[in-house]
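Section 3.1: Structural characterization of target chains.
Under the original work plan, the team committed to producing a structural model for every single-chain target entering the pipeline before any wet-lab resources were allocated. The record below documents one such target. The sequence was received from the expression subgroup and is listed exactly as submitted; it comprises 281 residues.
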Amino acid sequence: MATNRTTHSEILAPEQIGDLLVGPLVRQSIAGQALGPVVLAGTADYRVPIVTADPSAAWTAEGAEITVSDSAVDELTVRPSKLAALTVISSELADDSSPQAQEVVGQGIVRDLTRKIDQALFTATTTNGPSGLPSLTGIQAVTAASMDVVVDAFIGASYAVEEANGRVAVWVAHPDTAARISALKEGTASNRPLLGADVTQPGARQLLGAQLLTSPYVEAGVVWGIDPTYSQFVVRKAAEVIADRSVYFSSDRVAVRGIVRAGFAFAHPGSIAKVTLPAAP
């Protein structure tokens, strides 16, 4: 007699997914660290209001009518894209209800999702995914003619962002590029490196007082400066982790699929800087 059996199952409850999947994804990804605030959207489209022109203030005599002026407001619409990861675990681990077993499952999926999100952030266009920083126009782009003037390039980019009413809080570079910058000294007679240390966060690096992060997905020789006030990492609230026992039936293993929907919102490209270093020798 044939028996029907459901092979799909939710191995994590909805309330667990936030702690074991979405939370670590935000904390571990460069997108979650450099962009902010992180938005957990509950709808397919997330709309970011943009003020394109401020109201105009005027010195006014006491008792006189105040001149009325309006703000010009636009909006940026972000539709988070579907990002899916597939991993395989043993049946014993899938059947283990302990928090440690669930965390192991979540960690593998998070690592894969994190890589793909950060890769998209530093890629102009990603098939079926969001557009990243290189797709933006109107950013503050500065090129250093030589390593001797790299510091000047970073200073110029920082002040260009400030002129656009922003402030660079995070720099992101490829590890090799960060190493090149780390070799720079404060002066010809100094052995003190340009990159400072943040005494409040052991191991953290700083560049001109702003946090420096590294990602292998940043183009070599390029450093991005970001003001998190105007850039957001958008994640849909509805994430899922589903197990299927039928795919690897012969080896008694379980396929585990994790899905999140994420995107980026860059409301003010002028608050983003791109510093390009000379080619490495």
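Residues 1-7 have pLDDT under 50 and may be disordered.
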